[in-house]
Amino acid sequence: xxxxYGREIEYLRISVTDKCNLRCRYCMPPEGVPCVPHKDVLTxxxxxxxxxxxxxxxxxxxxxxxxxxxxxxNITELVRRLHATPGIGQVALTTNGxxxxxxxPELKAAGLDSVNISIDTLHADSFRKITGTEHLRExxxxxxxxxxxxxxxxxxxxxxxxxxxxxxxxxxxFAKDRQIDVRFIELMPIGLGKQFHGIPTAEILxxxxxxxxxxxxxKSDTEGPAEYYRIDGFAGRIGFISPISHxxxxxxxxxxxxxxxxxxxxxxxxxxxxLRALLRGGVSEEEIRENISAxxxxxxxxxxxxxxxxxxxxxxxMNQIGG
Length: 323
Fold this sequence. Notes:
With about 325 residues, this protein is α/β, with parallel strands linked by helices. The protein is built from 10 helices and 12 strands.
């Protein structure tokens, strides 16, 4: 699949649920939010069918997200089905890590290739302030279990002045003696994220320079939008994903599938196509392919975060869209 700008679309991020067992302040209010009714959520069979169709159109990598994907019943069976789908070369997972250690053996046996784990602090009190829970120990256990089990592990941190600005340097220690990528992801001005202030890449690099010495920028790889740095004596890499300040739309190769079956072409825009309606409406596979191809051709050239008063902008929270 190619869009009108010649970008090859090979990567599908699938939100399997909008439910989550944390209440991160930049994502969801403490009291929670109304969830998508069960009947409106794609079944595992429907997700597997859409992946089969899209793999035939060029999708090679899928990533399961949420909400928190590990709270979805029978998620391991979905991993197994996707791993067995012809054309799918990688099945990855983004998780908050709370349930990871206990579920890891089954997930790996099902074919999980890699895992991204979200962690914004190593301090229990800050973790409680950010997430509204006491689950830091379980998250740390999940990180260690995934690394010990040989999975490729990346840690995702959202730097935020109000929440963890003074605790970022400590997180980098995960990459000191382990081949783990510690990545700082720019705060997205979506939903509750608009209420907080992110920390620029240059400022974080200054923090790291003061603690560990100058970080060397590495040559760009082809795996994704992160810019990576190496600190002398570190086994792992430090990455920065900055979609707002360092827009990487020209290399975008991804689509998003929401829990209720909407195919999103760009995180910024609320438009897309309702694949659930097509599946449940009994249309042919060829019609589904045609609708997907037509939508992909309309994929926007770039996002417009920072623009004021755009009626086309997405107004839902990240747990509803898919992280």
